[in-house]
Amino acid sequence: MLINGFYSVLDLVSRALFLFALFAFVDAAIRRPDAYRAMEKKSKTFWLVVLGISAAVLWFLSLVSFLPLIALVAVIVYMVDVRPAVRGITGGGGGVRPRLFRRGGGGSSSDGPYGPYNGRR
């Protein structure tokens, strides 16, 4: 009975990770291709192929094998590194914008996170 419970929990985790990979694939599909180039990331086609293969691996293979772990790492890299950068260019809030795409006039080199740094006055 304990073994059956373990495998049912493992199956639920596996399906949740598949949905995570599917979300990453759809997110990569709706982003503009030039945003990937602007942020100096791999191409949109590359990420669609990697995330599509990752979703397929997570759907068909058990988490006990080694391949789904590699697929999960690829999805996490997209979600943590690529998605925020590309999302910052295409809109949708958050993300890191390169200096080229930032709003405003720039600022001096002595500016801190809350405005100009005036020293110890």
UniProtKB/TrEMBL annotation:
Region ranges (Disordered): 88-121
Any Pfam family the entry gives: DUF2516
Keyword annotations for this protein, in alphabetical order, are: Membrane, Transmembrane, Transmembrane helix
Bias (Low complexity) ranges: 110-121
Domain of life of the organism encoding this protein: Bacteria
Q: Where are the transmembrane segments?
A: 6-26, 47-80
Q: What name does the UniProt record give this protein?
A: DUF2516 family protein
